[in-house]
Amino acid sequence: MRRAAHEGLSISASKHFFLSQEKEACLMVDSVLRENLDWESEIARSSLSMSGSWVYDMPTIKSRHDPHIKYSGDFLSRIFHTAFPGAHLVEFFPWMKYFPSWMAKWKRDAEYHFKKDDIYYRGMYQAVEKRLDAGDERVSFTSILQEDAKHTSITYPEKVWLAAIIL
Fold it and tell me: Is residue 51 a contact partner of residue 166, using CB atoms and an 8 Å limit?
């Protein structure tokens, strides 16, 4: 996965994303200057819009209330809370990982959110695949990852989640 990530994030690949980064920076500065009281949500919109444009070649996110922003914020919040040391007893008692899902709420929650997140990020990845199949050769991290799949041995779910984590 390191090799696959390097192919999409190398210096030569990053040159393709300069225009979208410049556009997002201008939009962010303009919005912060106009609505300076809500600059934190504008920075969240701008950073997700920028990363979405180079990871999935998404169009610019214009509103701070876009559903992609809420979903990404919820995803990051879950990851941070789950990864926080001591968040779950299973960290102290590793034998608890063998509990069935009906018995362990943390396991049920993890399985539920993984299924939901997998559907969401798979859909984002498949949208890029459809564009590539239709002959739309716009450059994005996902398109580079898809084209470079012949040289790397990562599986389809690994490609989907590599793009999701970079987003």
Answer: yes
Smallest Cα–Cα separation from 66: which of 38, 45, 51? 45
Handedness of CA 102, 106, 111, 113 (dihedral sign): positive
Q: What is the pLDDT of residue 146?
A: 78
Taking the C-alpha atoms of residue 22 and residue 16, their distance in angstroms, rounded to an integer, is 12
Tell me the pTM.
0.79
Copy the structure tokens of residue 22.
């410049």
Q: Are 128 and 143 in contact (CB under 8 A)?
A: yes
Q: Are 51 and 26 in contact (CB under 8 A)?
A: no
What is each CA distance from 14 to 39, 109, 125, 133, in whole angstroms? Answer: 27, 37, 19, 23
The tokens describing 123, both together, are 């859909």
Please tell me the predicted confidence (pLDDT) of residue 49: 85
Structure tokens at 135: 């002959």
163: how many CB neighbours lie within 10 A of its CB? 24
Q: Residue 29 corresponds to which tokens in the numbers above?
A: 């500065």
* Residue 85 · residue 91 · CB < 8 Å: yes
- Closest of 53, 4, 5 to residue 166, by C-alpha: 5
